[in-house]
Task: structure prediction
Amino acid sequence: MERTKFQLDESQIPSTWYNIAADLPGAPMAPALNPATGKPLTRDEMGATMPEPIIDQELSTERDIEIPEAVRQLYTQWRPSPLYRARRLEQALGTPARIYYKYEGVAPSGSHKPNTGIPQAYYNKQAGKTGLITETGAGQWGSATALSAALFGLTAKVFMVKVSFQQKPYRRALMESYGATCIPSPSPETAVGRAILAKNPDSPGSLGIATSEALETAATDPSLGYVLGSAANHVLLHQTVIGQEALLQMELAGDYPDVIVGCSGGGSNLAGLTFPFIGAQLRGGPAVRVLAVEPAACPTLTRGTIAYDYADTGRLGPLFRMHTLGHEFMPPPVHAGGLRAHGIGPLVSRAVEDKLIEPIAVGQTGCFEAGVQFARTEGILPAPESTHAIRSAIDEALRCRAEGVGRTILFGLSGHGHFDLVAYDKYFAGTLEDDVVNEEQLDIAAASIPKPAGATS
Result:
């Protein structure tokens, strides 16, 4: 029988997280800034939302950072996650390409997000917090936070982008099953939410707004630890267990990727899969072409500006140097809610600047078309976010067919789509549309990007 699944033993779960900041060429990473002073954040300022070990990780330039044993033990619930050879998809496409996918939907909450949820809950528990507070887009991060809080005996409160709250009711039910409270954002619970609702009672919400609501709540309750699911250095760090396992699994397959594809929102899944391979390349290993695939309706990398900007709409947090559409950008209500972010992780932005990652924007209906083809050949219904990676992986495989070249393609299947059947229903009914943004919308949002004193673009 042809081998389709490549699995590791629990003893092969990585013992360290990989930090790409140690291997990036050129100048050090630009620091986050205090918006009031325009100066780099101090450790004391970071301590308002981060436990000491996470501050260390956020600032570290060490290549390997030890994973606590308690975290590794909880990882064994679903890690190592499987790597599959997509043989039936290859056959359906008639391509000479070899297609592999790393499947993170085996985690209890259905996506890659617990890879960072577990350590963040662990460090906040150690810091004496009794609960967690966060924001979520599609609900995958909210579900992971709820799960992680339950495993450490903590409460959890999640502000969920309103349009996703309405589109994905069973994500809310899952969070509540783990014991969390889920609130549609913008909400009347915070000053930020009330101000936005006063201007637009029908606001669909955004990750930036939900982030502001979570930060405001955390600032008023010292018993709550603020946790975040993407973009930050430490979050991307935690996700590198994905790529480290994939390196070993590609060895089991006797293969190595020529192309690696990941969906791109805040950057956590993309970085988790690709950074270990990029790091190997930077240290003299094989070259890889890395594709970051984002929605055309929220084109942060392909049409955004590299600048210092807020990660949240209410401007309660620090400034980060990143690709941004402007913190007031309101993305269309595409179903890939986890990719509706106006900004992206600074480490991902840097990798794009250094031409280590190539960004691509794709339309929603083409992604669902690819997701359905994948489900009908490989049997797994992908999350809308993951269909972006599938779309580009299929396009690369078809290019191989056209060129008669058998390249190896690896993509990240970041989660399953069992809570996204409303979106698939709309696709089958022909009512799912390709939302677009025009230059006027982008120009208006870009005008919100600040120009802090002392900051360089």
